[in-house]
Amino acid sequence: NNTHRLTLTMSPDERFLEKQAEDEEQKLQRKIQNLSDADHKDIYEKGLQLLAVQSTTQDASCLPALKVSDIEPIIPYTPVQQGTAGGVPVQYCEQPTNGMVYFRAMCNLNSLPEDLKIYVPLFCSVIT
């Protein structure tokens, strides 16, 4: 029975971008006016340094490169073994992961009893 209500109507401002640009220009002018001569000179010199650095060609030899000949023309076959774990069908394969194990699973929870469904988030957290 609460009769309090708030109705909010938003309408676009057609000059929004113009106002934003004007505000930014005013802020910039205020900052420029507050700069000392030494600050002006420092900013100018840093700008010249930046321009010099950006104008030089970069040495791309340090970047990693891959040639087509580096890629095996035949995709290596990964044997997938099939089995069961606790009566559930599983597929697994060995990978060169230095002992790391990657696990993916899909579970149909339709047959899970209701009293155990509250533990599903805990199970997901533990398994990952």
TrEMBL record:
Residue ranges of every copy of the Peptidase M16C associated domain listed in the record: 10-128
Keyword vocabulary terms for this entry: Coiled coil
Coiled coil: 14-41
Protein name: Peptidase M16C associated domain-containing protein
Phylogenetic lineage: Eukaryota, Metazoa, Chordata, Craniata, Vertebrata
